[in-house]
Here is the input.
Amino acid sequence: MLSKRIIACLDVRDGQVVKGINFEGLRSAGDPAALAQRYNREGIDEVVILDVTATIEKRKAMARTIQAVAQEIFLPLCVGGGINDEAHADAAIEAGADKVSLNTAAIARPELLTALARRYGSQAVIVAIDAKREGGAFRIYVRSGRQATDRDAVEWAREAAGRGAGEILLTSIDRDGTKSGFDCELTAAVSEAVSIPVIASGGAGTFDHFVDVFKAGKADAALAASIFHYAEHAVVDLKRHLAANGVPVRR
Here is the structure.
């Protein structure tokens, strides 16, 4: 079994890391570069920067923030938020990103995934899927979780993989910021539907939540924000717990 990855997410608004619940009520969590430096020191496997209001306000991810974070870490950096064409993707990668994440733009223009995969390789193209449970299915929401679509998360994940995406960043809006555990049913449904890695997001609160999403949810990686930002749990302790419970991790 391949090693599972632990990923720290920096939700950025106006140059500061913020965090809310169910994508609402954002509050400050610190400076992105300082947090990234700490995570790099503690042994996180990857960092994701998401400009949480970029799509709404029609802004691209801030190059200055990307550069500041990239200077502090020596591990993969993914950037998302407002990346809606090749020029925006170019700007993020030139600023120091290794990968770009697309959500709203990928739904609107699926062909953009193929264009970026050809340009940078599939490993650099992540499709972010924000989903809510509705009527026994998982409906996709865009524009930072504020606009419903008619797309199903599992079906869209399959299409995105076929169009060249290298990974799926799957967030449960229902669980986001609640610390009640990942949505393992949602994660497993998508993981079983695609052959590319699936990153689980939304709901991390305890070490056992990570064990559950790797085993029951069949995730390849798990992303969290709150429990890391506020120093509630140390990455090294999480990795020890995972290893003790039979989940292979990177040391």
Q: What stands out?
A: The radius of gyration is 16 Å.
